[in-house]
From TrEMBL:
One of its GO terms (molecular function) is flavin adenine dinucleotide binding. Keywords: FAD, Flavoprotein, Oxidoreductase. Belongs to the acyl-CoA dehydrogenase family. It comes from Chryseobacterium daecheongense. This is Cyclohex-1-ene-1-carbonyl-CoA dehydrogenase. Pfam families: Acyl-CoA_dh_1, Acyl-CoA_dh_M, Acyl-CoA_dh_N. Gene3D superfamilies: Acyl-CoA dehydrogenase/oxidase, N-terminal domain, Butyryl-CoA Dehydrogenase, subunit A, domain 2, Butyryl-CoA Dehydrogenase, subunit A, domain 3. Residues 122-217 form the Acyl-CoA oxidase/dehydrogenase middle domain. Residues 6-118 form the Acyl-CoA dehydrogenase/oxidase N-terminal domain. PANTHER family: ACYL-COA DEHYDROGENASE, ISOVALERYL-COA DEHYDROGENASE, MITOCHONDRIAL-RELATED. Residues 231-377 form the Acyl-CoA dehydrogenase/oxidase C-terminal domain. Its EC number is 1.3.8.10.
């Protein structure tokens, strides 16, 4: 693995950093308070190529590598973890899945507007009774000849209320277990497709999380992704890459909290000196810096392996497992270093602490990552 970033990668990192400072930081506290989706900012992210970063330019993407994606995600998440998850889902779950597995016709129709940021997408796998146990899908898509008839409920869908296109995983033949699952592209506005109320969340409150209700929705045959029965393998393959996105989001949350804590520790005085001169504080910062660097290396490793076409189930899971733990630990300590100030909203660290928790839950809980890693190393 080459640790020297190229000129182009450094430029992308700087562009994302500038964008986050200038466009995401203003209003981030209010968007968190009001659960307000960053509509204008996401539009600009699309114009900058941040919503289809790794997609071939012939399908509207920016044609960049996955390390650039990690760098940009970290910068965006440092300032606004909600905008970062919108970016992660659109890039890694929706665009990457379509680019790799969709038909040419589907790519032209759906991938191009999604990768160029004209619209955003969502990925609907989780259900009220099927989160970690993803093969237990209750949503059904019955083969009716010319079309499939979709019925069921999806839960906790990121971009659920703002997406135009949804990748929906559903059971087509329960007898066949995971080989009887398919993935479909469903358009917002189709008859029988209803979007449930917005979830009132602990963190990433600027992102838009809804349940989706399908009541006899007709899906044209041409909107199935891949061969019949490919849906579960599709979801697993897509989630492997998605975990790099969430690991990078977690990395950004951690490094954002660390930078704020370091700055504070260098200026805040207690017992006649800046608090960084107290070993109790300095050692916390030393641990944070070490863990963040290790998390970044795991993200780079998984991203480099992805671009080399290697199996990233293990490296993606390791990056997500570790970076999300670092996000949680670092943000808790950042609040602690800030003392009473850390507990109020204007210092940002309490928001980052709330935002961190979800990175241990979505796109596979930490426990699921350990299943993936342990099965891989046992092979
Ligand atoms: N990569 C590629 N393929 C995989 C895989 C992986 N990481 N894990 C499993 N598979 C494949 C297996 O090879 C097998 O395929 P074949 O039969 O063709 O060989 C098939 O999937 C079934 O595998 P298992 O028998 O191992 O399946 P299982 O029932 O034991 O479950 C699991 C495996 C890893 C636990 C899986 O269910 C899982 O990953 N669960 C977590 C789901 C998840 O991440 N949900 C998050 C929701 S999406 C979200 O959060 C989005 C958002 O909005 C932010």
């Amino acid at each position: 693995m080459d640790f020297n970033l190229s000129e182009e990668q450094l430029m992308i990192q700087q562009a994302a950093r500038d964008f986050a400072q200038n466009e995401l930081l203003p209003g981030v506290i209010e968007r968190d308070r009001d659960q307000k989706f960053p509509t204008e900012q996401v539009k600009k992210m699309g114009e900058m190529g941040l919503l289809g970063m790794m997609v071939d330019p012939k399908y509207g993407g920016a044609g960049m590598d996955s390390v650039s994606y990690v760098l940009a995600m970290e910068e965006i998440a440092k300032i606004d973890a909600s905008a970062a998850v919108v970016m992660s889902v659109n890039n890694s779950l929706v665009c990457a899945g379509l680019e790799k597995f969709a038909s040419e016709e589907q790519k032209v129709k759906y991938l191009t507007p999604l990768a160029s940021g004209q619209v955003i997408g969502a990925f609907a796998l989780s259900e009220p009774e099927a989160g970690s146990d993803a093969t237990s899908q209750k949503t059904t898509a019955e083969d009716k000849g010319d079309y499939y008839l979709l019925n069921g409920i999806k839960n906790w869908i990121t971009n659920g209320g703002t997406a135009s296109y949804y990748i929906v995983i559903a059971q087509t033949d329960p007898e066949k277990k995971h080989k009887g699952i398919n993935a479909f592209i469903v358009e917002r506005g189709w008859e029988g497709f209803e979007i449930g109320p917005k979830e009132d969340k602990l963190g990433i409150r600027g992102s838009d999380t809804h349940s989706l209700i399908f009541n006899n929705v007709k899906i044209p045959k041409g909107n199935r992704i891949g061969e019949d029965g490919f849906g579960f393998n599709f979801a697993m393959a897509v989630l492997n890459g998605g975990r790099i996105g969430i690991a990078s989001q977690a990395l950004g949350i951690a490094s954002g909290a660390y930078e704020l804590a370091l700055k504070y520790a260098k200026t805040r005085k207690a017992f006649k000196t800046e608090i960084i001169n107290h070993q109790a504080i300095a050692f916390k910062l030393a641990d944070m810096a070490t863990q963040i660097t290790a998390a970044r290396m795991l993200c780079f490793k998984a991203a480099t392996e992805k671009d080399a076409g290697k199996d990233i189930s293990e490296s993606g899971a390791m990056a997500k497992l570790y970076a999300s733990q670092v996000a949680m630990d670092t943000t808790i300590e950042a609040v602690q270093i800030h003392g009473g100030y850390g507990y109020v909203k204007e210092y940002h660290v309490e928001r980052l602490m709330r935002d961190a928790k979800i990175t241990q839950i979505y796109e596979g809980t930490s426990e699921i990552q350990k299943i993936v890693i342990s099965r891989s190393i046992a092979k």
